[in-house]
Amino acid sequence: MGKCLPKPSKTPDATSAPAQEELKIEIKSAQEVSNPLNVVLREFLTTTLSDHSLFRGLRSTDLDLILNRLRFLVVPPNENIINQGETGNFFYILNGGEAEIYVSGDKVGEYSRGSCFGEIALLTNSRRKATIKCKTKCSLWAIDRITFKTALRSIHSTSQDSIQKLLFQAPFFAFLPESCKNQILQSAIVNDYVDQEKIVEEGQEAWFIYIIKSGIVKITVDGVDKGTLSEGQVFGEGALLTDDNKRAATVSSVGTTQIISVDQKVVKEIVGENYKEIFMKNIIINCLTCEESFKFFDIDIIKKLADIFSTVVLKKDEVAIKYVEDVKNVIYIVCYGKIESDENSYATYQLIGLGNSLAKKIGRFPYVATCNTSFAQVEISKIEEKLGFSIKYFKQELKNLYFIKGTYIFSTLGLQAIELICKNMKEVRFGRNHVIYNEEDSDDNIYIIKEGAVAIFHDKTLLFRLDKQSTFGESCLTLVSRQVSAKTLTKCVCYELHKDKFIKHYENAVVDKIKRKAYYEMPFTIGGMRFSEKISSSYNRDYLYSWFEERDTMYLVEIIFKGAVKNKDKFTEIVDEKCILVQLDNPHIPKLLRTFSDLNCVYFVYEYFPFEFLGKYKNNKFKEDEAKFIIMSLCAIIEYLSTKNILHRDISRNNIFIDARGCVWLFGFNFAKKVENRSYTMLDTTPEYRAKEVILGRGYSRASEFWSLGVILYELLTGELPFEIKYHDNPDEIAEKIIKKPLNIPNYIEMSTRNIIEGLLQELPAKRFQLDEIKESNWGKTYDLKDIYNNLIEGPFKPSLKPVNNRMFASREASRRRSSILGGRHNEEVEQIEWDEYF
Q1: Which of 147-151, 386-390, 575-579 has the highest mean pLDDT?
Q2: Which residue segment(s) compose the domain that 540 sits in?
Q3: CATH classification of the domain holding 461
Q4: Does residue 798 lie within any of the structural domains?
Q5: Following DSSP, what letter does each residue of 666-712 receive, concatenated?
């Protein structure tokens, strides 16, 4: 063994003990020699560090910090570099030679040139997890603990805010004191992984908790794929919540990923000895706050309810729920792990009880743990005792709260405001054809329809048809008299709220909605409008913007050319289209405000908002979160349409708008139809999005709408159409490919998304994914459809929108002349139609 050279001069970052003495503790036979860095060595070290998951964000300044502090060591064959169980002070890069890895005396692997090891002990402040023995003479580059940690902090300092956000969203961290959170944040490290790189291995000792910062990971157990996880999701927390400190699965990167890791040992020290109980309680709090029945409760009440849950760690095959009928009287929560019966299963962070959708699927058979599982439960009687009232009474009160909260106009109000509205409103009943108020009346009430239907008229022309949970009369907050009249179409039950009882809750978000409702009712005429150039065309219709100069208001206009209406059946379809549009009252469907008719055209005038057609982005590849938000938004719209038994029948990219906030709108209702069960009508709709049963004329239902969503999701993520369809294919080619070609999904699409695409594009409608399957999947749980419906969430994809310059708009007479040219000759049959009677 050669004599060690003098240790390098001490720097401000040096440890309290001299670095040379630390080396003697760990590598007794090491010889430190001088090895100045040349170009080749620098390139080797840079490449090696950049390939390591911890150092892939390496900047030149970080690299210089490390390279300036490197120590070069030579160790003879058969000597140990590090010893299992000893204190770790250095991270090593093997420069030359071969080394063997031993755990508890058993050889488990080998290292060769470019291998790195020793980081676990430095990251976790723990003892060495393995012994590394020189098989041959080895040379090593060593990085001391302080340099190692300083480099990591520097690398990841720029992403501190995003790390903090994701870290504190984790259910077991979310409700910790801020001081604990900040200490945990200081110990968090971001690791970069390449495609198929293993993050943890099944059976391995558990050292870290992981949160996905970006990308996708794949879960496998005994070599069998168990699904994927994506941004914000957690894995590796099992050791904190159960008694098992071994990994239950292998987790690998799909593509490139960034993973936040937090040392479990540090977390335990920060949180304290009863960390397991604290984390279990945090998960219970998280599950209660996400449950519909508890969303209105103050967090302090939720925390008190969490205290009365009993918790247990179940071993594999231990009984979790013995008598499934107990779900009527007990609330169960799977805090970690999984339980299953012969019919069903429940997994981490799921609450079963209070008659929720999970409780309704409980089945008939007992449930047992499939692995080490943390489980919590409480009798509903104890919840009632803590609350001071019965769940039955609470649910009735909650029903009223949710009814009011579910109305678009009140959706952004807080619990206190909603409670006061419920307290101050009164129930009123009207007979059929009852006039609630007329134009110019000074009625001072806002109305919410509980049962029945109400029509809104202006100058005896039907503007809107409103039904359950719709509101009307909000204009009394801004105007002295009514601009429109309201009349019942059926027997009606309404809630009536005087404006004086609401003004105190007149928040900014509500102000915008009320202004919008006043805009809907504002009178205007076709003669006072000026029109933009055409912005789009479809199905013999033109789309453009209009400006009503007298009130300085903008509108979106759809022009239907009478010359293109070949027979009375086509005319009837246009009338039916208007009948459907006047009853749609959804913040994601452009509101039809008026219809007009002149010599050549029918005008459908909609509310104006800046938007871009999704069809403009054909061939673009959208990010996973962007595509998911668009699909979930469409699900929210389909859910609304289903309450009215309306099928859109032409959901395609060309009928989807994206506004400035990234919110999604559905347009193009010219093929829409009320369908109770099935429809057999063959339509000339966009062929790429038609379901197989539509093409084959077998009759179709709402399942066909979800086929269209599957095509759109595939298209958004790949920039191409499924079934090898090309955009230039003719309709017959497209139909043949949909029927005959297999569905091939690219490997780069994550597993959970692949499952959704495959479920949506199932050939058999009965097996096809629909609303419940999407909402209850891990993929779909990212978003609450109610939040999307109420515009509480902005979309991640925001198009670049050009401002509309109304100075370039032309007068109506110019528009009429243009319409006459575009519309072509008149048809004698349709000249007999009384257009003005309907439009």
Answers
A1: 575-579
A2: 526-609+803-838
A3: 2.60.120.10
A4: no
A5: E---TT-EE-SS-B-------GGG--HHHHTTS-B-THHHHHHHHHH
CB distance 229 to 162 below 8 Å: no
Q: 10 exposed, middle or buried (CB, 10 Å; 0-12, 13-18, 19+)?
A: exposed
User: How far is it, in rounded angstroms, from Cα 69 to Cα 718?
Assistant: 46
**Would 796 be classed as within a structural domain?**
no
Helix axes 178-187, 160-167, angle to 10 degrees: 120
Over the stretch 333-378, which tens digit does the pLDDT of each residue have?
999 999 999 989 998 889 999 888 899 999 999 999 998 899 999 9
pTM: 0.65
Please indicate, yes or no, whether residues 311 and 382 belong to a single structural domain of this protein: yes
* Dist CA 307 CA 300 (whole Å): 11
Q: Of 187, 157, 173, whose CA–CA distance to 261 is shortest?
A: 187
Burial class, 60, CB count within 10 angstroms (exposed 0-12 / middle 13-18 / buried 19+): exposed
CA distances from 704 to 3, 91, 684, 761, 816 (A): 80, 58, 15, 9, 39
Stated as kind and residue range, the H or E segment containing 445 is: strand 445-451
Q: Are 488 and 452 in contact (CB under 8 A)?
A: yes
Q: Annotate 355-401 with DSSP letters as a single string.
A: T-HHHHT--SS-EEESSSEEEEEEEHHHHHHHHTS-HHHHHHHHHHH
Quick one: 258 exposed, middle or buried, by C-beta within 10 A (0-12, 13-18, 19+)? buried
Residue 315: which residues within 8 A CB-CB, separation 6 or more? 369, 372
Q: Greatest CA span in the chain, whole angstroms? A: 110
Residue 45 inside a domain? The answer is yes
| Chain Cα centroid distance, residue 270 | 32
d(CA 259, CA 210): 6
Residues 258 and 333 in one domain: no
| CA-wise closest residue to 606 among 544, 656, 561, 686 | 544
Last residue of a domain, one of 361, 388, 415: 388
